[in-house]
Design goal:
The chain is of the alpha+beta class. 48% of the residues lie in helices and 20% in strands. It is built from eight helices and 14 strands.
Length: 449
Amino acid sequence: MSLRLRLVLAASLVLAGFLGATGWSLYVAFRESAEAGLRERLLGQVYALLAAVDADDRGRMQMPRSVPDPRLSRPDSGLYALVSDARGRILWRSPSLTGHHPTFLRPQAPGARAYHEQNLDGQRLYVLDYGIDWEDDQGAVEGYTFSVAVDLAPLREEAAGFAASLWRWLGGLALSLIFAQGLILTWGLRPLRRVATDLERIERGEAERLEGRYPRELRGLTTNLNALIESGRAAQRRYRHSLDDLAHSMKTPLAVLRNAARLERGEALRASVEEQVQRMDGIVQHQLRRALSSGQGALTTATPAAPPLERLARALAKVHRDKTIQTDLDPGARFFGDPADLMEVAGNLLENACKYGHREIRLVLEGLSPEPGAHRPGLLLMVEDDGPGIPTGRAREVLERGRRMDQRAPGQGIGLAVVAEIATANGAHLEIARGDLGGARILFRIPPR
């Protein structure tokens, strides 16, 4: 089920429930209002009958000779009236009851009133019984009950007409709202369809990334998708370049071995083979590390940086017992990327510091707080030693693969080149300067983003 259909169905169910409850509430309110009006009209008929009652020469109640409402004098008009005494004997009936035997009268105590429904020869009546006391000239008090009934058929027809009109209007309103809702959802979900279309264009090779302006809620998604696409392409480029470099770098050692096998013998041949094999091993290791460097993508997870660096520093301190490695590690610092990249950088920098430093090495790790508008904190890794240092003019030179400042120390001259490539993959800045200990200071800094 599509997202649009889900939203339309959910909103339609909510709309149907809301309009249904609204319609039922309006219908009930209309019925109650109509019944209240009917009761008021029945009470008005009772008061009109009381006003029409007269007294005889002894002050006793005399039934009205004329009725106040013409409907009471017209047979089967739908409005009927009765008057009875306290014993329930009917003393007077309206001419509209001609041909009927009324049974709807219910005697009431003086001042009491009661409403009820009653059948009369197939008609459903709504009845008001109203009790009164009448005192004659002799002071005798007699109780009477005035009953007025009205046919409910017109009221029910009116309620049915109101209900039909109400549901017709609410149904039309519901269809209009659902249609408008579909248009709004179509317009609102258009950016998502555009993202899907752009991704299909990327799959077909017609585009390289998600372009255009997207709503604020989708910018994180499109940015991360672009970063993921770029990360995959960068990995492909690294693999391809690494294979090309590996093939190119192997040409010279293989040529040397070929010439040595043809021209040299004995110890000289063994030394040449060992040298070239060591060189090829260094080239292979370098290219593998370069190809496997994952970089810092938008979807990478954060890992604590201090614990593995602490273990690395302790391990190197055991290997280089004549060196002192001072550490200042921020426990809250986090690295967004492959932890192997961070270990590769720290391992190469510390190994070089132990190799070229005299006695003292310093390792500093610091987390950089996000700047306004940034979502990820940065990271600062610094390694410095008390060795001879790196001249400012040769800082770029030592980052090239195979270039070494000191040919007496063992190695292939690829450690700092690996660090530089990992820095590029992770968006980091690499800075080489002279440190406070007198030797080289190398800063590996990933800015907040």
